[in-house]
Amino acid sequence: MCRVEEVILTLLQGCNSMHRLRKIHSQAILLGIDHSSAVAGKLLSFCATSSAGNLSYALLLFSRLPNPSTAHWNSLIRGFSVSPSSSYSMSLYNSMVSCSSAARPDAATFSFLLKACSQNGATGKCREAHGSIFRFGFASNIIVCTNLTRAYADNGSVGDARKVFDEMPERDIVAWNSMIACYCRAEMHEEALKVYKQMRIVGFRIDDFTAVGLLSSCAHLGALELGVWVHRFAEENGILDRNVFVGNALVDMYVKCGSLEQACIVFNKMKKRDTFTWNSLLFGLGIHGHGKEAILFFRRMVIAGVQLNSVSFLGLLMGCSHQGLVDEGLEYFHAMSSKFALKPDAKHYGCMVDMMGRAGKLEKAVEFIRASSFVSDPVLWRALLSACKIHKNAEMAEVALGNLIEMSAHNAGDCSLLAGIYASNGNSDGVSKMRKMVKEQGMKTTPGWSCIEVKGEVRKFVVDDISHLDIEEIHKKLMEMINRAIAFGYPAETFKLILREKSPEMYKEWIEHGGSFHSEILAIAFGLARMPEGTILRIVKNMRVCMDCHMLTKHVSRAFDREIIVRDRVRFHHFKDGSCSCNDYW
DNA sequence: CTAGGGTTAG
C-alpha cells in the first residue's frame, strides 16, 4: 500500500458526513487511487452502511469499480438490506453470482442477504437463500444458520426456523438465544421456555439476552415463579445492573404477572432507566386499575424529562380508560398533539372510543369516530362494538358490525360479540342469525384459554376441554366451588343443570349439549384444588372476562377466602373478599 | 470494508 493511500484511509477513518466524504473521494480521484480496493471499500462502506451515508452515492461508487471484490458487494447488499428497498439486496446478490467477476459470496454475504429476507421477504425468498447457502457450502456456518433461523421466523415460518436450528452441527449461546427470541416474537412462549430448558441441559448459562427472552415469555404466560427465579439469577450475576434491557423486561414481567409492588421495587432500584422502563410501569398502573396514579406518574415523567413517545400516551390513555376518567383522557389526548408534538395514531383513537364507549357515551364515541381520520380503520369500530356489549346496546352494535362488514374486516369474534348482546336481550333469532353467518363465511374462532402456574409449571386450560387426566379432580372442585359460591349469593341459573345432577357424566353431557365452562373457571377450580391455602391464585387468559365469570369469581373469592388475580386480554382483576379491583367497571 | 441474539402498546 502506498503512502497516499494510507493518508486517504486515515482521512476516511475520521469522516462523518457525506459532504466530507465527497471531498475525500475527489482527492482520491485526483491522486488516481479511487479504484484501490481498500479505498473503494472504505468509501463504499461509509455510504452504504453508516447512518450519515447515502445509498445512491454508494451505487455510483460501485458502478465505477472495474473489479468489485466480495467485500464491495457485501457492503452494498448490507446497505440495502436495512433500507426501505431491501428487496434490492436480493437483486444485487443475483447479479453477484451471475456475473463473471471473480467475487464469490462468502458467509457475510449470506448474513446480509438474510437480513434483507427478514426485512421484507416471504418464506419463498428465505428458501431461495437457503438453497444458495447450501450450494456455496455455508450450511454449517453457525452465524449464517442463526441468521437463517431468524429470517424464517420473521416471515412467519417458525417451523422452518426450528428445523434449521435443530440441524445445526453446533450451537453457541447466540444461536440458542436467537431461537428463544424467535419463539417470543411468534408468541409461542411455551416453546420458548422449552428451548431454554434444553439449553440449560446442554450446559449453557443465562446471559442478558436469554434473560430478556425468558422474562418476556414469563410475562406473557404469567409465569411468576420462573420470572422471580430469573430475577434472582440476574441480580446475583450482575446482569441486571449492567443492562437496562433486563431491568425493563423485569418491570414488565412483574406488571404482567400481577405484582405491581415488585415492579415498583425493581423500577426504583434500577440505576439507569429509559423510555421503555417508564412506559412499562405507566402501563402497569393503568392495567391494574390505578388510573389516577397513572396520571401522577405521567406528570413525573414530564418533570423528569423522559423522552415521551406514542406508547407513553397509549399507556396513559388506557389508564384513564380503565377507570372511566373520560375528561382527563380527552384533555391528554388533545395535549398529545398540541403540547407534546406527537401525532395520535389509530391505537390512540381506538383507546378514546373505548374510553367513551365504556363510560356509556356511545353516541359521543360514534361522533368521535366519524370526525376522525380513521373512519375506515376497523380498530375503532371494533372498540365501539365491545363497548356496546357492556351496555347491551344492540342497535349501536349493529351499526358497528355493519361498518366492519362493509370494509370486509369482520371476524368471528365480532359476530359473537353481537350474538352475545342479542342473547342477553333475549333475541334468539338474532343469535342464530349471527351463528349462521360465522358458519357460512367460514370465519375462524379464537379458542379461549387460561393459564395458571402451579409449582412452577404453567397449566393451560381451553374452553370445555375435558381431556385432562385429572378432570375428575377438577370436576369435583368445580362442583364444590359453584355450590359454595351459590351459598354466598351467586345466582344459580347458569348452573342449574349441573346442580340437579352432580355426577361426572352429567358434566360431560353438559358440555356436549352446548353448555359451557369458560377456561378461567376450570383454571380457578384447578388452582383451588392444587394450591395451598392462603396462596394467591394467578390466572392469565387470552380473552376478556365475561360478566358471568366475573361475578362467579367474586363470590368464590369470598366463599374460599382466597385472593384471585386474573389478567385478561387488556387488564387485571384483583378479586378479594367478594369484590374486584375494577369495581365492576371494565 | 471483516457477519449473528434482546424490552413497552395492539
TrEMBL record:
GO biological process per UniProt: RNA modification
InterPro entries (UniProt xref): DYW_dom (IPR032867), E_motif (IPR046848), PPR_At4g14850-like_plant (IPR046960), PPR_rpt (IPR002885), TPR-like_helical_dom_sf (IPR011990)
Family: Belongs to the PPR family. PCMP-H subfamily.
Keyword annotations of the record: Repeat
Single GO term (MF): zinc ion binding
Residue stretches making up the DYW domain: 518-586
PPR repeat locations: 141-171, 172-206, 243-273, 274-308
Name of this protein: DYW domain-containing protein
